[in-house]
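Fold this sequence, please.
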Amino acid sequence: MQSTIDDDGDAADGEGYQLEMMRCLREINVDNNMVGWYQSTISGSYQVVEIIDTFINYLENLERCICIVYDVTSALSGTTGVKAIRLSDAFVETYRDGTLTIEKIRAKGLLWKDVFVEIPIVIHNSPLAVALTAEIEAPTGIMQLDLDRLGLGGGPVMEKNLEFLNDCLDDLVGEQNKLSMYHNQLRRHQQQIAQWKLARRAENQARRAAGEEPLPEEPPEELFRKPAEPSQLDNMLLANQMSAYSSQIHSAAAQAVEKLVLMEKLQQAL
């Protein structure tokens, strides 16, 4: 009970903070219309079930809801590390229909890459912010951040992303095992129904021979419960996550090769 109270208190504090920030923006004549939320991530690891549920909750009041994702790892490697995403209309329609079964996904023609839609964004500072930055900081020839970007050690980033990718593969194998178990249970379920029907037909033949009324040959629904098919949402999110990690590995490897080639040319020039 105490944890529930604490969670409710944290949620109330978060809502209060959001309302206060929107009030402050309104007072300084800044657009304060809510269109979504923002969150930070590491190596693009935002494709989780929680973000889907958050999107669905926001879509109850916002027709076009977006999420601004800030990737700390990408920002440290020299790129912007900011992207805007939303759920595709086809995925939202299918998700609201219930469990994402294989039949529903095939009927809608959904692929794992159709879950999220990336929206192009442009980031810029206002002229006043640029002028203020020029006033409070003297221009320098080179910064420490520029020197860090020239570092040749790309191993830790690639190693971390490979670990994440390996974890995703393990999770994907677990999801495939769930699907295989479901098919085995469904096969046993169908076999039990077939055996029941054979026994009922034999019983009805005996009843007809004795001049009695035959019994229904279809089993009651509550007698043999069909196993529930596991949702394919985790499979689709894991595929998205693996694609993000693969892109991070590709980007880190490309930057490392470019730096090595550049350093080789510099050494030859010297």
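Residues 1-5 have pLDDT under 50 and may be disordered. The radius of gyration is 29 Å.
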